Amino acid sequence: MNGALPKWLRLEPPSMDYLVELREWSESIVSTKQDGPGGYRPEDWKDSQSKVDSEFYGVVGEVTIAKYFDVKPNLRIYGKYQGDGGFDLQLGPWLAGVKTTRIRGEREAPPTCGLILRPNEKCCDVMIQCYIGKYFTYVDVAGWVSQRRWDEHHVLKDLGYGPRRFMEQENLSDIRNLLPQVESRRL
Predict the structure, then answer these.
(1) In which order are the strands placed within the sheet that holds 126-132?
(2) What phi, psi does 176 have (nearest 5°)?
(3) Is there a contact between 172 and 114 (Cβ–Cβ < 8 Å)?
């Protein structure tokens, strides 16, 4: 992986058949969510990415991480404006959120971004950052952060679409170190 940080982990995404199912699931989810509190907000969308795309990229990352840890992803939607209950999968006693961004263009090297949360978005016990490669041929895991570390080290930053809570990727921990901490019940 040219230019990648050593802690990055490249994973295989779901099969093409499963990707088709996840895309259909994403379309059905978007058709049930509405704009407004807890649902979609106009300021969250750029012209270049649809609501369906956002749901789809997210669920691809969630399913890939769930497979890596051999757990089930939380694909349940609790009703209008409630989303998935604030977590994407459970690792031992901790709830985990997975943030996924699609890498655009021809580049193979991972982006130099970081973990981004909206100002009022809940940080789970563990947050994991992923990037989907071109043509959905791989998912790169940039790392993870505990809620405690997030609370201590994130900054408020305007990335061109309003203020967001942000942590540089070099402050994320190697995903391969998360499972031993989950097993020892220490974060």
Answers:
(1) 9-11, 139-146, 126-132, 94-102, 89-91
(2) -70, -15
(3) yes
Q: How far apart are CA 170 and CA 112, in angstroms?
A: 9
Query: Residue 147: exposed, middle, or buried by beta-carbon count in 10 A (0-12, 13-18, 19+)?
Result: middle
Q: Determine the residue type at 72.
A: K
Give me the pLDDT at residue 71, please: 95
CB half-sphere exposure, 17, CA atoms < 13 A: 0
Q: What is the pTM of this model?
A: 0.81
132 and 57 in contact (C-beta within 8 Å)?
yes
Is 163:134 a contact under the CB 8 Å cutoff? no
Q: What is the pLDDT of residue 144?
A: 94
Q: Which residues 6+ apart lie within 8 Å of 136 measured at CB?
A: 13, 19, 60
Residue spans of the domains in the chain: they are: 9-183
DSSP 89-154: EEETTEEEEEEEEEPPSS--SPPS-EEEE-TTPPP-SEEEEEEEPGGG--EEEEEEEEHHHHHHH-
Average pLDDT by stretches of 10, the chain with 187 residues: 59 88 81 51 50 84 94 75 72 92 65 77 90 85 92 89 87 91 81
State the DSSP H helix or E strand holding residue 31, giving kind and residue range, or none if neither: helix 16-32
CA distances to 44, 88, 120, 156, 164 from 160, in Å: 12, 27, 17, 12, 10
